Amino acid sequence: MSSEATRIIDLYQRRALEWARDRERGGGLVEKSWLEQFRALVPSAASILDIGYGSGVPISRYLIEAGHHVTGVDSSATLIDLCRDRFPAHEWIAADMRTLALGQTFDGIIAWDSSFHLCPDDQRQMFPVFRQHAAPGAALMFTSGPAHGEAVGSFEGELLYHASLDPAEYRSLLDQHGFQVISHVAEDPDCGRHTVWLAQRV
């Protein structure tokens, strides 16, 4: 099943505009309460690294409108161009999150609905990436599955891979890389049943 993970970048590039359309449809922000918890951990004009930001809507847009400077990283050239047009004062970078090395740190890092497309081994390797880009006291927020396993859904008739580590392993990886768990909710009913992790570098 993990072989489907290798097709994610290609899928999001080919289906970028359809994905952006569906993500932005409805105009709601079910993530707002989590974003507010995240923002409470960072300075008022914090620098934010958004990993796998997609179309920049709604999360990057919300952070920009709240006064933060956003650096976004995504593998889809189409989505990068879209964000550059929408938010030209911010930085949008084409890169594979697994090998990210920007040579700078940020006050906050978000990987919302992005790193859970990686296979388990690649997810484990994201924690050194998080640490490398986290300033002292930085907030880190990401989504995962509720339990260890792999699953394949579909988008526009194509297979869409997801994976999750066990919650205990996420906690261990966060601890090993210098992050303290601030809040964690599995399948949050107030956030579209997302499983969310909010941590802070200590």
TrEMBL record:
It comes from the Bacteria. CDD domains: AdoMet_MTases (cd02440). Keywords: Methyltransferase, Transferase. One of its GO terms (biological process) is methylation. Signal peptide: none annotated. Residues 48-137 form the Methyltransferase domain. The keyword Kinase does not apply. GO terms for molecular function: methyltransferase activity. Pfam families: Methyltransf_25. PANTHER family: TRANS-ACONITATE 2-METHYLTRANSFERASE (PTHR43861:SF1), TRANS-ACONITATE 2-METHYLTRANSFERASE-RELATED (PTHR43861). This is Methyltransferase domain-containing protein. It comes from Bradyrhizobium ottawaense. The lineage of its organism: Bacteria, Pseudomonadati, Pseudomonadota, Alphaproteobacteria, Hyphomicrobiales.
